[in-house]
RNA sequence: GUGGGUAUAGCUCAGCUGGUUAGAGCGCUGCACUGUGGCUGCAGAGGCCGAGGGUUCGAAUCCCUUUACCCACCCCA
């Protein structure tokens, strides 16, 4: 554990079960999302810093203190992406894929970067899988997005009853500003009963005060005005429709009027999936919402948008807590062994042929004893072991041993594939 | 950015109030079984006890510093 060459703070190598878990989840995502008509989109790991300051919002913690920003050799200010929605929208604007009211459904998977103090379920380089639906403004689109996220988690193996789906509406340009002022006024009114941070939020981002975990603040906020009661008619109707669609789809949700996403771009529908076990002090494994103003903030034409991101590491923790494991997944059908070094060339050749025919085959390349070769075959869970041995090979045959039943058959090397039923 | 904890073999960890060659289990390699895996028995390899400094006749053990990791606050996925 020399610390000379360790991965930087907050980063980790995806190795063993974690690496397999990542492949499993990205594969699952591709399968599930494609059934909803989603296509892959991969954007750069770094972007112009301004994309994030404009897109996510200057007042957010993510932009204010968590970005990995650097200057490149050309003097440009670049930032490692702290999230991917702004990039996807930028890419969509650049490629003009939402021209003339066309919709686009896109998903991605990859690392994000935030300069935070690491802890369980939170690292500086972390992996997200996400989806964005662009150019769709109907409540049906919202419901479909939420259902897809729920579907993904279920498909990945998290028991539905261990998850909790929270849904809320944040209003839009017509109703949120007034509500925002109302909350700010409420905070000022109760200033002496609230913590410092809550007071500070009155000026920066009043809604975030709902996230405060301080018990006494929560108590005060229990009587705060709720956006739910202040929504404009359009937002209220939209929200009600989303909820009834979720209900009809049998996706259990909880209305949480205090759910406030931390990024400035959200409008109307916001949602979050939480679990109670395995995540330490975190509890959100995925979340997202609608961002109808983001295109314009980034210089595009008014276009609605909607999406979610889910945290890979947290999802993995939740899966582990549910007893899901990612065992070594090598698929070895045959182990080709030699009883004498004389046959190593033949064995090597057979293994090569089998692999070309789509059969998983292992052959010893370390000069091990026959016994050691059997052990390897066993550890690889090979279903069969083929043995090149003097007596049998003198008749042009090799031994095919079924490792489970211990039955052995003699066949010509060319018939091995048939003998193992592959 | 602010707290608390931990650091000994590939992995999980013992090592009491300082005492001589630093241990166990699992894993790995070999042998018993020279052409047949799992079980068993035996043997072996693998450690500058995170790093640096100090106290001491003597430090994995005590003190200081440092680094890393973990956990929590905060924030979010």
Detailed description of the structure:
The protein is an alpha+beta fold and 422 residues long. Helix content is 36%, strand content 21%. It is built from 15 helices and 16 strands. The strands form three sheets. The protein has an eight-stranded mixed beta sheet, with helices on both faces. Strands 13-12-14-15-16 form a five-stranded mixed beta sheet, with helices on both faces. A three-stranded antiparallel beta sheet has the order 2-4-3. Helix 1 (17-34) packs antiparallel against helix 5 and helix 6 (176-189) packs antiparallel against helix 7. The chain is elongated, with a radius of gyration of 28 Å. The chain binds one RNA strand of 77 nucleotides through helix 3, strand 6, strand 10, strand 11 and helix 11.
Summarize the topology:
Blueprint: H1 17-34, E1 39-40, E2 46-48, H2 49-56, H3 61-65, E3 68-71, E4 77-80, H4 85-95, E5 104-113, E6 125-134, H5 139-156, E7 163-169, H6 176-189, H7 196-204, H8 215-221, H9 233-248, E8 254-255, E9 267-275, E10 284-290, H10 294-297, E11 305-311, H11 312-321, E12 334-338, H12 344-356, E13 361-363, H13 370-379, E14 384-388, H14 390-393, E15 398-402, E16 408-411, H15 416-419
Parallel strand pairs: 1-5, 7-8, 12-13, 12-14
Antiparallel strand pairs: 2-4, 3-4, 5-6, 6-11, 7-9, 9-10, 10-11, 14-15, 15-16
The chain binds one RNA strand of 77 nucleotides through helix 3, strand 6, strand 10, strand 11 and helix 11.
